[in-house]
Amino acid sequence: MAVLVDPAVWPWRGERWSHLVSDVSYDELHEFAARLGVPRRAFQGDHYDIPASLRGPALALGAQAVPARELLTRLREAGLRRPKARPVG
Q1: pLDDT at 80
Q2: Are 5 and 55 in contact (CB under 8 A)?
Q3: What do you get for the CA distance between the two ends of the chain, in Å?
Q4: Which DSSP state fits 88?
């Protein structure tokens, strides 16, 4: 299992958030997120955003803590990084 989580440094709605990804498959990521109690609707195309309060439980379930740059590098190297949508206009 290669589920990765970066530090909870991304601010939104008064909380800090982490990214949760898999460098193996989306199926692995969805299964892990379900075990963590994160609903599928929280999937952001190639990752889940999880609040700081879920980072510890994610690590306890076996996620690997990595810096944000390493998380992105490994996601790209696995071919699982989805390109951002381009604005129309």
Answers
A1: 85
A2: yes
A3: 41
A4: P
